[in-house]
Amino acid sequence: MKVTLERAALLKSLGHVHRVVERRNTIPILSNVLLRAEKGSLLLRATDLDLDITETVPADVGQSGATTLPAHVLYDIVRKLPDGAQVSLEASGDSGQLLLRSGRSRFTLQSLPESDFPDLNAADLTHRFMLPAGDLKRMIDKTQFAISTEETRYYLNGIFMHTTDVGGHIMLRAVATDGHRLARIEVPAPVGSGGMPGVIIPRKAVAEVQKLVEDINAEIIIEISTTKARFTFGDVVLTSKLIDGTFPDYARVIPAANDKRLIVERSQFAEAVDRVSTISSERGRAVKLSLNDGRLMLTVTNPDSGSATEELEVDYDSGELEIGFNARYLLDITAQLDSDTALFKLADAGSPTVIQDRDGAAALYVLMPMRV
């Protein structure tokens, strides 16, 4: 193999693919990135057996061929080369080494053969559709924070994506929950997504997709089966195994009859919650909301350090109510809202609360109360 390409193109591509490679691997080949030179391009590929990413970059190919190199070492070398440099990669078939040259720099790197590199077979991807990158990014941004990190409830360790009928319109919906809070957002379902299986996209794949969305005006090709999902961003293709589990019936925990409506000025509310929670302990981050006509009192009590209160004028006329929430969760949700105000739909101190920008907003959040 003999190939030459610009440092900037190689660095950008390595920046995409090396993130998939775990720093510590018991299987040596999984520490490597596959390089395959052919027909005026260099293909780079990395996998952790759950996630597989490939990217093709233009290159001057002197001799076709393929090899694999340590991903993080190669990335660090290319990152430290000067801007505007040309990088030459040269490997002979049987030496087990690759020579990297750039300017006056020479690196001889240990390689492993292409034949050792695993193939994450995507099998038959039954549904294929195109989604604007802005829609996909928004769906992830609005739900990612609620993904559970509790490994024992593995079926909550991702975003559940499926299509559903909403008032006669087919919508593509993304849902995440950790049992304490739930985030749900929907966009009009693109052509080809109807009837797709409901899939749980793992946390790591979600994070990589989010980073790969660089142009929100682009169209992303999404292909899905019951076991895998593939996302194509131009020259970058990300394939992920799906979580093999059943996502809970989330609709049951979204209350429909909460009749107490609280409207607050969003940034003012978030700042007040942030201030009073300063004295809360790490273990108990509860903030109490005391509501009466037009008034909201925020209270935090910590036996070790004291108490804090702050009063806000709000739009509320549904009788007295005291309810507690985790301050961190309140701040996470209000940070997702787009409008200047936040709408809380409450029932009582022991029931979940619905939070939205407004009635009928595309994004909806449910927060479980805490005892205070």
Q: How many β strands by DSSP?
A: 25
Mean pLDDT: 94
Separate helix tally = 6
Distance between the termini: 67 Å
| Structural class computed from helices and strand pairing | alpha+beta
Q: Give the helix proportion (percent range).
A: 10-25%
Can you tell me about this structure?
The chain is of the alpha+beta class and 372 residues long. The chain contains six helices and 25 strands. The chain has an eight-stranded antiparallel beta sheet with strand order 6-2-3-4-17-16-15-10. Strands 14-11-12-13-25-24-23-18 form an eight-stranded antiparallel beta sheet. A hairpin with a 2-residue loop joins strand 2 (32-38) and strand 3 (41-47). Helix 1 packs antiparallel against helix 2 and helix 5 (266-276) packs antiparallel against helix 6. It is elongated, with a radius of gyration of 25 Å. The N and C termini lie far apart (67 Å).
